[in-house]
Amino acid sequence: MHSLIISHSALQIRNTRCGLSLREGAPCGSVRGKMKRLLLSAVKTIVLMVALFCLLSFLGGFSNKQSVVLAILLFVAYSRSALSTTVPKFVPFNVFVTPNLYNILQDFELVKPTEEGWAEIRAGVETLSKEHWNIWHNRGFSVSFITRELIYNKDWQSFSTEEVDLSASLEPAVIVREQHKPDSMLRNYFPYLNLTGGRNNGLILRLTLLDWYWERVKDKEIPPEEFGVHFWVMPGNSLRDTESAYDDAVKRRTEARARYVWKGKAHRDMYDRATDADRSNEAEHRYCAVVHSGI
What we know:
Layout: E1 2-5, H1 28-59, H2 64-85, E2 93-99, H3 101-107, H4 115-126, H5 135-138, E3 141-145, E4 151-153, E5 158-160, E6 164-169, E7 175-176, E8 188-189, E9 192-198, E10 202-209, E11 221-222, H6 239-259, E12 263-264, E13 267-268, E14 274-275, E15 282-284, E16 288-294
Antiparallel strand pairs: 1-10, 2-3, 2-16, 3-4, 4-5, 6-9, 7-8, 9-10, 10-11, 12-15, 13-14, 15-16
């Protein structure tokens, strides 16, 4: 058997093809932005230190040396307090991944490219049990990230502390081993889909076939930046800071979608309010679509 990963580039933490991390491949604009933020942070630090020194020296009556030492101690205490309150907290969210079964079967020649071929597939789907989960009737994979360590699989109503690892048979799509007799149990092989990954390293959809049947590999990953828009708003954070953090997350996601050949899906809600493609939590690719939302 051979697993064909559905992606156009390697996952960031694996770097198996491009040899570059997302940081190494960042455009020059992002470097300028970092320098600008560093300069702004340095200016804020200097202003705060001067303000503390003036308060301690002129209002507190301390000597210059005492004011300098106390200003440094107060700044360090303030910095530690600010750091402890800005550590991002985990925000639970749902993910629904919908494989495009029509394109998968068609591109990997798992169906005869005729109306009769698709009629056979539809007839086979009708014979599948509706009491048990299958990819045809349930349309996709549904998982909820409850905590960093706890994942809930809605389809099987089960919990896991490991990463996502879900499988789905593509029966009635079948690969026939011609060397086996018609009545042999080994004659028919049903290819299957496998969804793996987690919150921090994105999700990977795999199609598993027989080695001799298909040797070419195509792959498509759901990059981890897709879920970066789910973050905890810390106490004391201003609306401006929150909006800036969200805009940064959307920008990183837009760049990642372009690299991995995903397209955001614009939509309108029940109140006719529009959400553009970049800010939408729905994205599509030729072989699957993903929708995610906070819990």
